[in-house]
Amino acid sequence: MNRPLPAAVALLGLGAVLAAATPARCAAQTDSRLAAAVRLAQEGEGDSARAAVQRILAATAPSDPLYPEVLLAAATTAGSAVDRQRALQRIAVEYPNSAWADDALLGLAELSYASGDLPGAAKNLERLRLDYPATPLLGTAAVWAAKVYTEAKDPASACRWVAAGTAAAGGNLELRNQLAFYGARCQGVDTSTAAATTDSSPAASPSAAPPPPPPATAPAPAPSAAARKPVFRIQVVAAPDEAGARRAAARLHAAGIAPVVAHEGGFWKVRGGSYPTRAEAQAALAKIRARLGGAPFIVSDSTSPIAP
Fold first, then answer.
1. C-alpha angle 153/198/158, rounded to 5°?
2. What pTM did the predictor assign?
3. Cα–Cα 20 to 30 A to 146, which of 26, 175, 188, 220?
4. Given this model, what pLDDT does residue 301 score?
C-alpha cells in the first residue's frame, strides 16, 4: 500500500487531484444520496457533503454491496489527501472485486504522483492494468502512467502505456491529445523490453518491492505438458500480502471450492475452481458470487491449487 502522504503535500496536492478526478466519479455514483453529497462538495459545501456521506457510511453494513461505493464518495468528498487515501485504500484492499476497485487504484496512483511517490503511482497503475484489463479507466490511467514513467526516465514503459491508452481512448479527443503529447517522444523507442519489466513496477525502489513467495519445503516435480495447459478459474481477490490471500483462500476452501494462490505483479491473487472451458467457468461464476459476494471474474491460468 502507499505510504501516508506528508501533511504539506496533502494540502498542496489534493486540490489538483480532486479537480482531475471528481467529475468522473460523481457521474459514476449510482446511489442518489451519494451523488447529491458529491455535488455538494463540488459546490463548495465540503463539510455538509462529508457529514452526509458519514451518515450513510454509519448506516451501511460493511458487507452491503453499497459499502465500497460509499467509501468512494468519502474519498471524493474528503477534506484532506490523507482521508482520501485512507478511503481509497480500503476499497482497493477490502473490496478488490467491487465495481469501484479500479477507481480506487487510479485515485491512489494520482495521490502518489501528487506526493512525488513515482514507485507507488506505478505500482497502482500496473495493478489496475493487470487486474482490471477491461476497465473503462484505461485511457485515463495511461495518461498518468505516461507522466509517471516519463518522469521516472523509463521511456519504454511510458510508450507502451501510450499505445495501450490510445487504443482504449476511442473517440475521446481530449485523452487522445494528452496521449499524443507523450507519444511524440516515442519515435524510435523500443517498447519490447517494457512488457517484461513493468508488471513489477520498474520505477519501484528495492524497499518498495513485494516479498518473494515462500520457498517450497521440497522441490516440486516438473509439470507435464497437460498440467501446464491453462485452465479457467474464478479470481475472487488480489491481496497485497500473503496473509490476506491465505484468509481468502480459507473462505473459498470452506465454501467447498479448491483455492489457488498466484503471486503475480506484486499481489497475491486468489482464485477458485478449475474449469476446462470458459462456458463451465461462467456457469460456476454465478454460484461463487452468490456464496462469497463481491465481483469475481474469470481468468485463464496454469497455477496449481495450494492448501489454504
1. 40
2. 0.59
3. 26
4. 61
For residue 225, the model assigns a pLDDT of 43
Burial class (CB in 10 A: 0-12, 13-18, 19+), 246: middle
**Dist CA 191 CA 308 (whole Å):** 39
Look at the domain 225-301 and name its fold: Alpha-Beta Plaits (3.30.70)
CATH 3.10.20.90 fits 7-198, yes or no: no
Rounded Cα distance, 282 and 298, in Å: 7
Degrees, nearest 5: CA angle 281-282-286: 110
Grid cell 505516461 — which residue?
A: 146
- CA distances (Å), origin 73, targets 20, 35, 91, 290: 15, 8, 11, 26
Task: Please list the rounded mean pLDDT of every run of 10 residues in the chain (308 residues).
Answer: 39 41 47 87 89 93 89 91 92 86 91 91 90 86 93 92 89 89 87 52 39 41 47 80 78 77 78 81 78 75 48
Set of cell numbers at residue 44: 463548495
Query: How many C-alpha atoms does 207 have within 13 Å on its Cβ side?
Result: 3
**SS3 assignment, position 56:** helix
Sign of the four-CA dihedral 254, 255, 260, 266: negative
